[in-house]
Amino acid sequence: MTAVTAPPRELAKSGIVAWLVTTDHKRIGILYMLTSLGFFLIAGFLADVIRLQLAAPQQNIVGPAAYNQVFTLHGTAMIFLFVAPFGFGLANYLIPLQIGAPEMAFPRLNAYSFWLFLLGGLTVFAGVVTQGGAASAGWTAFAPLSDVRVSAGVGQDLWILGLTMTSISGIMTAINFLVTPIVFRAPGMSMWRIPIFTWEMIATALLIMMAFPPLTTAFAMLLLDRHTGARFFDPGSGGDPVLYQHIFWFFGHPEVYVMILPFFGVITEVVAVFSRKPVFGYTGLVLAAFAIAGLSMGVWAHHMFTTGAVANPFFAGMSFLIAVPTGIKFFNWIATMWKGAISFETPMLFAIGFMLNFLIGGITGVMLASPPIDYHAEDSYFLIAHFHYTLGGGSMFAIFAALYFWFPKIWGAKLDERLGRIHFALMFLGFNLAFLPMFFLGVMGMPRRVYTYPAQAGWGLLNLSSSIGAALITIGTAVLVWNVIVSLRKKEPLPDDPWGGGYSLEWATSCPPPEFNFRALPPIRSKRPAFDLHHPEYAKDSQK
User: Fold this and answer.
1) Which of 41, 327, 364, 455 shows the smallest number of beta carbons within 10 Å?
2) Other C-beta atoms within 10 Å of 213: how many?
3) Total of domains in the chain
4) Residue 276: which H helix or E strand, with range?
5) SS3 category, 488
């Protein structure tokens, strides 16, 4: 064992002040995760409002103006303030632990990035209390819907400013995610021994560095259009609204992979531990992550097939191609489970749920990558179902897998297994009941962003099914909250590796870890140092 020397730190503080001024990567990670889960609860409430409104024809629970604000804030919270930031929080907590480092490379920058993210999220929602209400141009804010003549309220300005802050926060976070694994690895932790989750975060950080600056640029241009008469996106003054789409989707499609690559890493870690087998095809998984990241920079215009302004065959081909490295990951997960001693604890159940749901999302994504199909499905509920299966059935299920898997490490308490299984059953049934009917609604012609519909359209029963599914998801979320409360009350001492088969270094320190992560580092001679420490009888095999 190698003793760990802690870097100097300011005089320790206690209570809430310690959390407000902390530069400890673990506390910052927890703050990210708790904040993003708070936004998830808000987004869930807004989703329930949407489903109540659409549960039956000709409902008037909210009017069209309020409905525009509700779905705008729902999409914004889920995409910008929940899925990706939860991955940032998990990475903040785990990366130094997984590489044997005491801290992030730039602790103060790390702390600043969290507080800027929180301020940005609050700024987005601050529009609710303004006279004109919150932003209502949709989570993409396409011009001319976001033009000051259409969205005149200050809420749209606050939305732009808030997301600009979260974008800058993401760029600063990416700097830490790149530098820390490259520079601060423990002795023996070569790059090809880094856990898959950390590799996925390196690929994610590269994507952020390439994709987030264009988003900030688009928002700056939008503000100039709204308040200085710049007219970048006004065709009447020589501008072009399609330009906004190009800049936004140059961010937007890589952002999809910013929201999924971290959770590919989560699924890889969970599947290996609960299959009681090393990861199959480690090198292939790493290379597939970077292939996805690289290809994702060349597929943005498949969102624009119907504009007539892009080369459809090229972007269709790139969109088809990106399915190949994703398929490699599925192959490797299945091969990892093959002939393994699979244990179906709650994290593994959510991992399997992720694979089943994401497979549907991926297959329908390949369908939408075909321009003839996309021409029919564009702006319909088929598209809504597709991206909810990738980001809800995919990323969200992986988030729950991560919560159950690393909760003992973070809080020193295991979540109740019985409640966890109930939570999974409600979420899996509710999710598929909510979003599978939307594929059929899209085929039947229901357009997205409508706040009501006529009875004679024949969409009522499928919409009611979706609303019942949303209610089940809400009940499942309540079960998770109750599980957390009950489990923290019953907290008992746990071993370093409560799952009995952890591979990476976080399972070689206490639950929760000490301030600088390790009292002593185990020798790192393979890709699974924690397993070597706890199972020395197999250590030689793991080093082959």
Assistant:
1) 455
2) 15
3) 1
4) none
5) helix
pLDDT digits (tens, 9 = 90+) for 187-245: 999 999 999 999 999 999 999 999 999 999 999 999 999 999 898 999 888 899 999 99
Residue 440: partners with Cβ closer than 8 Å, 6 or more residues away? 462
| Cα separation, 206 vs 422, whole angstroms | 38
Residue 6: inside a domain, yes or no?
no
413: containing domain = 18-542
CB contact at 8 A, 203 and 295: no
Which is it for the CA torsion 454, 467, 35, 255, positive or negative? negative
Q: How close are the terminal C-alpha atoms of the chain, in Å?
A: 21
**Per-residue tokens: 520:** 């002593």
Q: From 3, 201, 6, 178, select the one nearest 102 (Cα to Cα).
A: 6
Q: What would you measure as the largest C-alpha separation in the chain, in angstroms?
A: 75
Q: Is residue 11 part of a domain?
A: no
Q: Are 204 and 177 in contact (CB under 8 A)?
A: yes
Per-residue tokens: 269: 């870690």
Query: 10: pLDDT confidence band, cut at 50, 70 and 90?
Result: very low
- C-alpha 253/C-alpha 235 separation (Å) is 25
CA-based angle 269:270:271, to the nearest 5? 95
Percentage of residues of the chain with pLDDT beyond 70: 96
Please tell me whether residue 231 adopts helix, strand or coil conformation: coil
pLDDT digits (tens, 9 = 90+) for 268-315: 999 999 999 999 999 999 999 999 999 999 999 999 999 999 999 999
**CATH code of the domain in which 148 resides:** 1.20.210.10
Residue type, 519: R
Cα distance between residue 56 and residue 488, in whole Å: 41
Average pLDDT for residues 491-503, to the nearest whole number?
89
Angle at CA of residue 433, ends 81 and 476, nearest 5°: 55
The pair of three-digit structure tokens given for residue 539, joined into one six-digit string: 């250590």
Total residue length of the chain: 544
Is position 237 within any domain? Answer: yes
Whether this prediction's pTM lies above 0.85 is answered by yes
Mean pLDDT of 261-269: 97
